[in-house]
Every structure is written in C-alpha cells, then in structure tokens.
Automatic annotation (TrEMBL):
InterPro entries: Amidoligase_2. This is Amidoligase enzyme. Transmembrane segments: none annotated. Residues 1-37 are annotated as: Disordered.
Length: 397
C-alpha cells in the first residue's frame, strides 16, 4: 500500500518508512534494507460528494419540496455559492456548481414541513488546492445550518464519488480499489453507525452469488480474472433477483442484475473505456462541514493508497483497523491536506465490529421495510446527478 520502492537514490525529504506494513508485502529487491526508500507519487483523484439530509426551513413553513429547494438555492446564492436546482429533468447539470434536488430514498413529512433533500457538490481535485474544496464544503454547511434545521435518519447519507484525475480509470486501478473495498470492509464498518452496516442502501459488496461463500483469497482471484470494466462492475454490484431488493424492484425470477445500492458502487463503470465514478455510499448523513470533509479524506486517501505504486494486499491475513488508520493518516500528511485531525478523529471513533457466530463474513440480512420497498421503486428512475456532473466534467478535461 505505501508508495515506496527500494532505490539507491535518496528518498524524498520527509518520507518515512515502516519495516512492517501489516497488510502489505513489498516487492523483492536486491538493494540493501538499510537504504532509504524512494517515494513514488500516487495518482490524484477527482471527487464530488452527495449529501442526503432531512431539511426544514427555520423561518418558513414549506408545504412542498419545491418551495424548500427554492429557499435553499436562494440562501446559497446570497452566500456566494454557485448552485442550481436539478429536480427538473430538463435543467442542465453543471459540474462546477452545487446541485439541489429532492431525495426519494429519504422519507419526507410535509405536514411537519420536513423534506428529504440531496445536495451534490461540484467536482474537485482531491489533493490539489484541498484548502479550497474544504472551504467550499464548510461554507455550504454553515449556510444550511444558519437558515435550516438539518437532521438525519437511517436513510440519510454522505456519498463520495471518485474518479482518477485524468477522468478515466485504468482497469488495474479499478481492480485495486475493488480488492481494498472487500478486504477492508469490516474495518470501514467500524467507522459507521450500526444501522449503516445493515442498510439496504449500502449492502455489503460480498452480498452476492460471486463472493458470499468465498475466502478473501478466492474473492481476489475473481477480481483479478476480470478483463473488462463491466465484468468487474458485475462482481462488485450484483443483486440477486430473489433478494428483498430484487423483489421490491420486480425482477424476474432468476434474472439477477446490477444495482447501485452497495457500499462501493461500481455500476457506473459500465459506461466502458474506463469512464464513470466509483461511489462509497456507506457513510451516514453529515450535518457539519467537518463530518463531510472527514469522509472525503478517508475515501481520497484510501484510493491514493490502493491505486498507487507499492506492495500488494495479502488476502490471507486479517485486516487491522489500527494499521489501516495509520496509513490513511500518513497519506493525508504526505498529500499536504489541511485539517488532518478530522481524519484522525474519524479513525479514533471506530467501534470494532464482531461478526455474528455462524454468519458468512460480509453477508447482510438485507431485510427491508415496506417503506424502503416503496422507495427502492421510486429511486429506480431517479436522476443520477453525480453521473451527469461527471459526464459534463470529462468533456473539458
């Protein structure tokens, strides 16, 4: 995982090296261990974040979501934050502005003037000008909190969409991220509330016929065998037709399909040619800028670590949250990210998950309520704002 190779050349100033990486095995070399390693820079990533929240105006009793969308847009505009309302399918999406729309997966309470809303950020470079995107996120959440009551339910979320800075994935990069997503699943589970570990909106990527009965080594073999982005997307986002999600969506018996409601959503890679974002969907709703920034840091640092040069994961060894946290924080330091303490606090807040005896590791109950059943159908034809932003963005890269 660490971006090092052994080299007789002096290491980059400030680079540090650990003899043991816990999860990773370094490439063999004839160079003496006493010589310092040279740092190889990892790839940078583009990202946008989608925030799903329950929102109510502090001053106005809106009867409809449309009225609340208008007020949110007006308040952001007054604060100097470029935005647009994207509920209307005819409205063009901008990759440089915040998008505001109703969120169908979150229950609204019109009689109480509370509505499920989604705000999707512009795309930004993760490590370049990080102070700018952090300031933008803080400004948006500060404005929202000043004029609206922000609350969260089990359906609320913080989704982080990423793609390489070039705009396109290499298949090897996408495979590396997929392996890390499976390997570190229980470590990442420790960072979220219990209800996001068993959510129908963020199911385990091992919750399918490809992975559920396999060892981690066998899962890696499945990933390594894929020769296309569509094949990889199928392994990571495959939904059984007879699962509660499949039944809710009216899938024909025996006709399994890809679906976005997994912890790591690889479905967008079906666009082909390395196009599309991968989204980490498990984090809960965030009501402060600091919370949002910490999740973006986590995803960006993990992507840089697993997709950059360095050693390989050892699937036969048990992942360790402590070691993962150390490398994430180290990557944040190397990337020069401001406010690294937010990532440190997120890692320190982890509550280790103890698997239930007799259950398959990574397997979720996938039991859903009547309300979730209905909302899965409502979301089936919903506008994918983040993907539209990405498609517009790559036209200008």
């Amino acid at each position: 995982m660490p971006h090092f190779v052994y080299s007789p050349e002096p290491a980059h100033r400030g680079a540090r090296f650990a003899e043991s990486t816990s999860h990773y095995q370094r490439p063999s070399s004839q160079v003496s261990r006493r010589q310092e390693p040279a740092r190889l820079d990892p790839p940078d990533f583009l990202f946008c974040v989608a925030l799903g929240l329950v929102v109510r105006s502090r001053k106005r009793d809106h009867k409809t979501a449309a009225g609340l969308e208008d007020e949110i847009s007006a308040q952001l505009t007054r604060a100097g934050i470029a935005n647009h309302i994207s509920s209307n399918l005819a409205t063009p999406i901008s990759s440089r502005e915040w998008s505001i729309t109703s969120e169908l997966s979150i229950r609204s309470r019109p009689n109480d003037h509370h509505f499920g809303m989604k705000l999707v950020s512009p795309f930004s470079f993760f490590s370049k000008r990080a102070e700018a995107w952090q300031a933008d996120i803080r400004a948006v959440l500060r404005t929202l909190n000043a004029h609206f009551e922000l609350t969260t339910t089990h359906q609320c979320f913080t989704h982080v969409h990423i793609a390489p800075a070039s705009g396109y994935w290499e298949l090897s990069q996408a495979k590396s991220l997929a392996r890390s997503a499976l390997y570190f699943e229980r470590c990442l589970d420790a960072l979220v509330p219990p209800y996001r570990r068993r959510s129908v909106w963020a199911k385990s990527n091992r919750n399918n016929v490809y992975f559920q009965a396999l060892s981690m080594t066998e899962c890696f073999t499945q990933i390594d065998a894929q020769t296309s982005f569509s094949g990889l997307a199928a392994r990571m986002s495959w939904c059984d037709a007879d699962s509660p999600t499949g039944v809710a969506l009216g899938a024909q018996p025996g006709v399994d399909f890809q679906h976005s409601t997994f912890r790591w959503n690889f479905v967008n890679l079906n666009e082909g040619g390395g196009l599309g974002t991968v989204a980490y969907r498990q984090p809960p709703g965030s009501t402060s800028g600091s919370e949002v920034i910490s999740w973006v840091m986590l995803v960006g640092c993990l992507a840089r670590l697993c997709c950059g040069p360095g050693g390989m994961l050892q699937p036969g060894e048990k992942p360790k949250l402590k070691s993962l946290g150390e490398w994430l924080i180290y990557e944040a330091e190397w990337s020069g990210l401001p406010h690294k303490s937010l990532l440190k606090d997120l890692v320190r807040s982890a509550v280790p998950v103890t698997p239930t005896a007799g259950t398959v590791p990574g397997m979720d109950a996938d039991a859903i309520t009547i309300d979730e059943d209905q909302r899965l159908r409502l979301k089936a034809n919903d506008r994918d704002v983040a993907s539209e932003k990405y498609r517009r963005l790559i036209k200008h890269l």
